Amino acid sequence: MAEYNFGANILETLTVSMYSEPKTIYREYIQNACDSIDKAVREGVLQPNEGEIVLEIDSDARKITIEDNAMGIPAADFKRVLGNIGDSEKDKDTDKGFRGIGRLSGLGYCRQLIFTSKCRGEKVVSIMKSDGEIMRAMINDKGRYSAIDMLKEMNTFEIRPARDDDRDGFKVELIDVLDTADKIIGDIQAIKNYLAFVSPAPYDSTFIYSAKIYEHARELNQPIDEYNIFINGERILKTYSTTLETARSGGDKIVDVGFKDFYDDDGSLLAWMWIGISRFKGKLGQKCLMRGIRLRKENIQIGDDNTMQRFFSEERAGNYFIGEVHAIAKDLIPDSQRDFFNENETWLKLQLKLVEYFRDQLQKLYHYGSDFNLIAKYAVDQEAFEEKRQRNLFIDEEQLSKAERELEKSKRQADRARKALDNARQNYEGDELMTSVLDQLKLE
Fold it and tell me: What are the strands of the beta sheet with 234-235, ordered from one edge?
């Protein structure tokens, strides 16, 4: 019987090819740190909100550090835990990361990857060093190396006595980041913007509707996982705001938030959603970093700002909204790239409910926004016409007649729009989210 073998190229897949977005490495290491903090809280080592994840990005030195203050790995287990690839001891029901394949993701972007651990109560520090140059050379070599051969060559382990400045916890260091990897080190603000929505960070306190979001989560008994995450001393927050920058139409604003909960047939909660309620004056522009309804599991983003677009039938629909869908059911398991969920019965049920709601109801909201804009336009047109007539600013009867015809056209459009909104208010009576939006589409 032939023996099975995993070739060296499997490591290239795990370190570079697996993730289309290089900045994903930050998400992977933050996710692992969150699991360590959760474990420390469960075991009473840390109090809730004591855990910290600190990122230091030194563009000049080409060095990245991601460090937490949680459990660390016992020295006796260090080599076994980090030496295993795809054989994690984590529990998929409790841990955010559980496959054991993301820890080497940074190696594709640096010359050396270092893991350092100090377990609480121990007086030693465990270190693993992975040599990216050896990995790349063996991948490019025509020799037929196995993945195990490569791991033995590129990884070294050591244990040293702890010093006074060694912190309890776990640290990842990317040393000598490659010139081709500027995307993960060159533009620190872009990294902050990325993590503001991808990572499990709290809402910015200036987003006045965050209190309503937290309250809804508490009512569902589904508190939102949040962590203290810092980059170069600055705390990462979800930078939602009430001001919306539209591609045209002069901007818009969030005037409230609305909620929709998605339940299985047996009454169990599959997911819940919040969206920002505006008057949908126009499509949100590229500069509006918070645009899109974002899919999240345990408050870590799945995919990107366009992932939920597929649930609308109109291509542009998703660019009118901001909001989040928080997946709750345990069987909703992120795929290995965290681009979507693994295909299973639970995910199929949620997809069907999302499609039904997004296409049959949510998608109509920005059309209702257009209806409201027609009503508002008529009010402006009517006021302008009356002022011009009272001040005798029409040159002659022909100009006055033309203006009257244009005003009558505006009135007809407004009447149709008002009727459409009145019908919608009747049809969606009882739907909290739709009712909340429609209540805003009224002239003040």
Answer: 155-161, 124-131, 110-118, 169-177, 63-68, 52-58, 228-231, 234-235
- Among the listed residues 341, 346, 339, 273, the one whose alpha carbon sits nearest the alpha carbon of residue 306: 339
Phi-psi label, residue 439: left if phi above 0, alpha if psi -120 to 50, beta otherwise? alpha
d(CA 403, CA 406): 5
Residues, the chain: 444
CA quadruple 173, 34, 227, 234: dihedral, nearest 10: 10
Asked if pLDDT for residue 248 goes beyond 90, the answer is: no
**Which tens digit of pLDDT belongs to each residue from 421-430?**
888 888 888 8
What is the helix (H) or strand (E) element at residue 432, kind and residue range? helix 432-440
C-alpha–C-alpha distance, residues 1 and 373, integer Å: 73
Which long-range contacts does 230-233 make (Cβ < 8 Å, 24+ apart)?
230/52, 230/53, 230/54, 230/55, 231/55, 231/56, 231/57, 231/188, 231/191, 231/192, 231/195, 232/55, 232/56, 232/57, 232/188
Could you tell me which of 373, 411, 432 has the C-alpha nearest to residue 252?
Answer: 373
Structure token digits, residue 195: 């993590």
Q: How far apart are the first and last CA of the chain?
A: 79
Q: How far apart are CA 363 and CA 209, in angstroms?
A: 22
Contacts of 228 (CB under 8 A, 6+ apart): 49, 51, 52, 53, 235
CA atoms within 13 A on the CB side of 98: 10
pTM of the model: 0.87
Q: How far apart are CA 113 and CA 109, in angstroms?
A: 9
Angle between helices 397-427 and 432-440 (to 10 degrees): 160
Please list the alpha-helical segments (H only) found in 5-97.
9-12, 24-42, 75-83
Per residue in 276-295, pLDDT (tens digit) is: 998 888 888 888 899 999 99
